[in-house]
Amino acid sequence: MNQNSSKGFLIALSTIRAWLVIVAAVWLLGAIGLGWLVKSFFALIGIILLAPVAIFVGVRWWIQRNLVQGQCPVCASPLAGLNKTQMRCPNCNEPIKVEHKHFSRLTPPGTIDVQAVEVGARTLEE
Predict the structure, then answer these.
(1) Cβ-based burial of 10 (10 A; exposed 0-12, middle 13-18, buried ≥19)
(2) pLDDT in tens, 15-29
(3) How many CB atoms lie within 10 A of CB 57?
(4) pLDDT, position 84
(5) Residue 3, pLDDT above cutoff 60
(6) pTM of this prediction?
(7) Which residues cross the membrane (predicted)?
(8) FRET label pair with 47: which of 64, 90, 96, 116, CA 20 to 30 Å apart?
(9) Per residue in 83-109, is it b (16+ CB within 10 Å) or e — as a string?
(10) Do 88 and 95 meet the contact criterion of CB atoms below 8 Å apart?
């Protein structure tokens, strides 16, 4: 008699027995009116599977809406920051304010910020 074939049969029988117990438990819960428990379990599994996808899509949409890319108004180096925040330029260390998808220099109250325009020198002849 071959000992290996009876071992394979026992392993297959234990696998079938495990599936039969699961099916019988689900059928019993449905038969005695605890189907809501099974439905709740499957709903929980569905939420667990769909939540990461929804979170990924939501975070991506939020970042796309609030990420501002541009240049520093002081040194013109490239910057990236979140809308409605304050930051410092990594190049010139100047405080920068991000508002309305635009970078502007953050000045203390009472400071008048002007932009200088370079004018070429001309000599006047008399």
Answers:
(1) exposed
(2) 888 889 999 988 887
(3) 10
(4) 93
(5) no
(6) 0.54
(7) 9-29, 41-63
(8) 64
(9) eeeebebeeeeeebbbeeeebeebeee
(10) yes
CA distance 81 to 92: 16
Nearest 5°: phi and psi at 55? -65, -45
Packing angle of the helix pair 3-31, 35-66 (nearest 10 deg): 90
Residue 94 has pLDDT above 70, yes or no: yes
The structure tokens listed for 22 are 């699961």
State the residue for tokens 């071959």.
2
- Amino acid 114 reads V
Domain-wise residue ranges, the chain: 7-63, 68-105
Site of tokens 């990236």: 80
Which run of H or E residues covers position 68? strand 67-71
